[in-house]
Amino acid sequence: MKKLILALIVLIAAAGATLYLSPAAQLSAYHTVEQWRAGLHERSVTVNDLDISYYEGGPQGAETVLLVHGFGADKSTWLWFARELTERYHVIAVDLPGFGASGRPHGSYDVGTQAERLAAFVDALGIRRMHLAGHSMGGHIAALYAARYPEQITSLALIANAGVDAPRRSPFFQRLEQHGDNPLLVDSEPQFDELLDWLFVAPPQLPERLHQYLAQRAVADSAHQREIFEHLQQRYLPLEPELPRITTPTLLLWGDQDRILDVSSIETMKPLLKDVSVVIIKGCGHAPILERPQESAADYLKFIDQASQHTAEGRKAASTNQ
């Protein structure tokens, strides 16, 4: 009963915020409600003189799940997905350096450098073993991490990940290569609407003031995001040579209508991975964790439950043979 009353108070406060607060405060209030619903708390840690922001929730003694966001995003993109995990898993969703509330270091933002920054973050939190999941650019980083630090990984989930040469060129890459125009970079408010159309089959319907605020924020951050994208291109690390080094159970999860990174990427990756599962969500775009969070989280939970059982059985067998 106390939890129900608290929930009503929080929701009423959030509803009031939509009427009286600035769009920035509305967004903050909304995220606060969603954090509470997901059982997550915002924390920070300083790693190599760099402040790293992250969400943390779920039972402390449970297996850890580390979630890594994509390009132009931040840890909040995992809120609705993570809500399905925190009852049974210790969940961490990180703001990569250069994104969200984390610091913006001098130097490169290429995936190799970010993978090492992620390793330093994991070490600072004392995580010895984990389920690792990444979306888009975050999937590229997660795959590199799993190849470099296999002893830390119980399972790997790559959700519409970058880093491979797909048999079919996506509309995004066709436009980028033919016109040099990157729809992920927002230089005007109308381009923000176009970005949503690129990312989703059914773009979210946002309140007008909040929509305008998010568009203006994207425009204001465009130069920084452009710099990051240039680093990703200039110091590109293909995953094809790395994937055979990954021995942990791996999930490839994609939306069948992804216009950014074509679903045919799975055809490239599947033969290179030793223990692979595939889930393709019908009628979904580039961001299943946002467009279909409950469905994608259910598929992910099934996968990591099986991976945990497989690991436990392997350890038991190894102990018996000693």
* Fraction in beta strands: 15-25%
Distance between the termini: 51 Å
**Main pleated sheet:** 8 strands, mixed
User: What integer is the average pLDDT?
Assistant: 92
Total E-strand runs: 8
Main structural class: alpha/beta
CATH class of the largest domain: Alpha Beta
Number of domains: 2
Protein name: Pimeloyl-ACP methyl ester carboxylesterase
Keywords: Signal
GO molecular function, one term: catalytic activity
Domain AB hydrolase-1: 64-293
Structure description:
The chain has 322 residues and is of the alpha/beta class. The protein is built from 12 helices and 8 strands. Strands 1-2-4-3-5-6-7-8 form an 8-stranded mixed beta sheet. It starts with a helix and ends with a helix.
In short:
The protein has about 325 residues and is of the alpha/beta class. The chain has helices spanning about 1-20, 25-40, 80, 110-125, 135-150, 170-180, 190-200, 210-220, 220-235, 265-270, 290, 295-320, and strands spanning about 40-45, 50-55, 65-70, 90-95, 130-135, 155-160, 250-255, 275-280. It is globular and about 55 Å long.
Write the layout of secondary structure elements.
Blueprint: H1 2-20, H2 23-38, E1 40-47, E2 50-57, E3 64-68, H3 79-82, E4 90-94, H4 111-124, E5 130-135, H5 137-148, E6 153-159, H6 171-179, H7 189-199, H8 208-220, H9 222-234, E7 250-255, H10 265-269, E8 276-281, H11 288-291, H12 293-321
Parallel strand pairs: 3-4, 3-5, 5-6, 6-7, 7-8
Antiparallel strand pairs: 1-2, 2-4
List keywords for this structure.
alpha/beta, Rossmann fold, 2 domains, 12 helices, 8 strands, globular, disordered N terminus
